[in-house]
């Protein structure tokens, strides 16, 4: 869900109210923060929550993804071949045509 004029949240159309815009401005909360909380937050009643613990877990997960993406970049990319629900093979992009 992206916080724009109107968005969907759990299949329902939602829109930011004047109240949330005012409170976000007063509290230094950006649209990006709201988007992240909605995307990754824990649902508690009618709220989405990202506390310190969840934020640290997300940072660790992103750090891991960055590490893996750096390895993929070093290989010039990686391709995975599938057929239906089967994983057939994987190879480095920069070595794709080495066998020809």
Report on the structure:
- By secondary structure, this protein is an alpha+beta fold.
- It has a domain at 7-75.
- It contains 3 helices and 6 strands, in the order ββααββαββ.
- It has helices spanning 18-27, 31-40, 52-74; strands at 7-9, 12-14, 42-44, 47-49, 78-83, 86-92.
- It has a two-stranded antiparallel sheet.
- A hairpin with a 2-residue loop joins β5 (78-83) and β6.
- The mean pLDDT is 87.
In short:
It is built from 3 helices and 6 strands. It has helices at 18-27, 31-40, 52-74, and strands at 7-9, 12-14, 42-44, 47-49, 78-83, 86-92. A two-stranded antiparallel sheet has the order 1-2. Strands 3-4 form a two-stranded antiparallel ribbon.
Rg is 20 Å
Flag low-confidence runs.
none
Number of β-strand runs: 6
Name the beta content range: 25-35%
Mean pLDDT: 87
What about the largest sheet? Answer: 2 strands, antiparallel
Structural class: alpha+beta
Task: Provide the fold topology.
Blueprint: E1 7-9, E2 12-14, H1 18-27, H2 31-40, E3 42-44, E4 47-49, H3 52-74, E5 78-83, E6 86-92
Antiparallel strand pairs: 1-2, 3-4, 5-6
Summary keywords:
100 residues; alpha+beta; two-stranded antiparallel sheet; two-stranded antiparallel ribbon; 25% strand
